[in-house]
Design goal:
15 helices; 55% helix; alpha+beta; elongated; 459 residues
Length: 459
């Protein structure tokens, strides 16, 4: 044991003699380890943020979307199917709401409508939508029937110039008033009347012929003009809606801000959009344990209502979370692989510096062997120096990575808080030690094979 500590002390002193070169050698390891810890912690933060947002929707949430997913077709494409024309109807939503294991179900259809000189996006939903998604309201209540709307705070400000409390109870006109549609100038049509036609005849026409044309045109043209009805410009009829509530603004921890939505009844949205199908149906199961039971019933009953056609897909939160977790895991591996390249470069730097050190200390090796040092002693010394370089660089790199993962989200506010786990720290530290062993073997082996006489002969 004493001999081991003596050799370790000699290796450490060898590193301290050329401290400048030692620091530069460790720099590659420090950067590599710090990059691995930083990117892995940011990946964990992204995964936690996305998982939290999905879980906030509730583990009991089920979504019925148009088109079939790859899983339902026998493939393995996850819960995301190709876009397809919707065949879902409000009757399907009412059918699903009455199935066993289902607490509530609501249609959801998106539409846009003009309000004055602005265009507003609305989500047409059923009154039960509030039970499924738990819409937060800052004032008023949720939609309970036709002729009612719930505005987002942004729409309440820009359409009514009101705060949440003041907006509730006001009436909003949705549609384009006829007076705002551009009309044709009546004088433009009269300018092309029969009185102007003789003057539009080519030059050189005899005056007598012009008089004959003038006499005949009023009789022949008048019936034709009477048969052409005046076409009024098309305009969407104006509908009056009562504002019954204002949605509470939502905050997103990670990613771009989600635009706030305004709500109206499904029937009103379908009437404005001029369609009969809805975009999706959202379902709330009675409890988490009843999700699979409800999914089976939904698939069976809706397929029967569609004459056996499998033109819809049923997605649960578990499938959605599993897909996102798989994606973020692959992202973490990809980022760690990129950071691992810098660790590889740092390991090559350690090997090069140790080879230079062996060449510079050839006479020292010869003297030690002449005094009785074995090949194993010399091998252990130089291998220990390489491992110490990597371990010290790994410790500093872990500290830098943890500090960077705490500071970077504060600077880049769009990033979620990083999550540093012991697994990533231990992995980075272990890889740094492994690099010291792997890239230190060749220099240590070359130093151990030197013959004392040849080593003492070299300058």
């Amino acid at each position: 044991m004493r001999r081991t500590f003596q050799i370790a002390g000699m290796g450490l002193s060898g590193l301290l003699v050329n401290w400048g070169r030692t620091i530069l050698t460790m720099l590659g390891i420090v950067i590599g380890v710090a990059a691995v810890v930083l990117l892995a912690s940011l990946g964990n933060g992204i995964q936690k943020s996305i998982s939290g947002q999905i879980n906030d929707l509730g583990p009991n949430l089920i979504t019925i979307s148009p088109g079939t997913s790859g899983e339902q077709d026998g493939g393995d494409n996850g819960p995301f199917g190709a876009a397809a024309a919707s065949t879902l109807t409000p009757e399907d939503a009412r059918l699903v709401a009455g199935l066993p294991g289902v607490a509530a179900a609501s249609s959801n259809v998106s539409t846009v409508a003009p309000v004055g000189q602005r265009t507003v996006s609305f989500s047409g939903v059923d009154p039960s939508y509030d039970e499924v998604r738990a819409v937060g309201l800052t004032a008023g209540r949720f939609v309970e029937g036709r002729g009612e709307i719930v505005l987002s705070q942004a729409d309440a400000r820009r359409l009514l110039d009101s705060g949440p409390d003041e907006a509730v109870g006001k009436t909003l006109s949705v549609g384009t008033p006829p007076e705002e549609v551009p009309e044709r100038d009546p004088e433009q049509g009269s300018a092309q009347g029969p009185e102007q036609l003789p003057e539009q005849l080519p030059e050189g026409v005899p005056e007598r012929l012009r008089e004959q044309v003038s006499e005949r045109l009023p009789q022949d043209a008048a019936p034709e003009q009477a048969q052409e009805p005046t076409q009024e410009p098309a305009s969407e009829p104006v509908r009056k809606y009562e504002v019954v509530g204002v949605v509470e603004a939502s905050e997103v921890e990670f990613g771009p801000p989600v635009p706030e939505s305004s709500y109206m009844s499904t029937a009103d949205a379908l009437e404005i959009a001029g369609v009969e199908t809805v975009g999706q149906i959202v379902v709330q199961a009675e409890r988490a344990g009843a999700v699979d039971w409800a999914v089976d019933g939904i698939g069976r009953e809706v397929r029967a209502a569609h004459d056996g056609a499998r033109d819809f897909s049923v997605i649960t939160q578990r499938e959605l979370l599993s897909t996102f977790t798989e994606i973020t895991d692959q992202l973490k591996i990809f980022l760690a692989g990129i950071a691992g390249i810098s660790l590889l470069v740092g390991g090559i730097g350690v090997m090069n510096i140790m080879l230079v050190s062996v060449a510079e200390r050839t006479r020292e090796i010869g003297v030690r062997k002449a005094l009785g040092a074995t090949n194993a002693d010399v091998l252990f010394q130089f291998l220990l120096e390489a491992v110490l370089l990597s371990l010290i660089g790994g410790v500093i790199g872990v500290a830098v990575g943890i500090a960077g993962s705490a500071v970077l989200p504060e600077i880049l506010t769009d990033l979620p808080p990083a999550v540093v786990t012991a697994n990533e720290v231990a992995l980075a530290f272990g890889v740094s030690a492994l690099i010291g062993v792997v890239f230190g073997v060749l220099p240590a082996y070359r130093s151990a094979r030197l013959q004392p006489v040849e080593a003492l002969r070299r300058e």
